[in-house]
Specification:
The structure is a single chain. The protein is an alpha+beta fold. The protein has 2 domains: 55 residues, 2,3-Dihydroxybiphenyl 1,2-Dioxygenase, domain 1 (Roll); 52 residues, Roll (2,3-Dihydroxybiphenyl 1,2-Dioxygenase, domain 1). An 8-stranded mixed beta sheet has the order 2-3-4-1-5-8-7-6, with helices on one face. The longest helix has 12 residues.
């Protein structure tokens, strides 16, 4: 069963975004050392219920909050999404050293991500 394991926000003004979440909620922010500008949001103690997230720079006016599901096989999930009336909006692609990610819309147009863990992804 796929569970929500991550959320993603977008920002135009990175420094303003960082200050907001640090000052309002006490979240910790850490820049990812990967090939794109991306910042992790640590929302609390890992011993308590909850998930962490991240944010990146807005790339288009269509960017929105995305919740990401943990899946065993991103390609298989992509096929099931289409077969069941959903739409793949960004095909399966590698997040280097992390895994395989696909963005999709469900039957009501809600945007989601599905991530298959794979540290060998390139």
């Amino acid at each position: 069963m796929a569970r929500v394991v991550h959320f993603e926000l977008v920002a135009d003004d990175v420094e303003k975004m960082i200050k907001f979440y640090e000052n309002v909620f006490g979240w910790k922010v850490q820049k990812w050392d990967g090939p794109i500008d991306y910042w992790f949001l640590m929302t609390g103690d890992n011993e308590k219920l909850g998930i962490d997230g991240a944010f990146g720079k807005r790339q288009s006016d269509d960017d929105t909050v995305v919740n990401t599901l943990d899946v065993d096989d991103a390609k298989d999930i992509s096929e099931k999404i289409v077969k069941n009336g959903g739409e793949v909006v960004r095909p399966v692609s590698a997040v280097p050293g992390v895994g395989w990610l696909v963005y999709f819309k469900d039957t009501e147009g809600n945007l989601w991500g599905a991530m298959q863990d794979d540290s060998e992804a390139r």
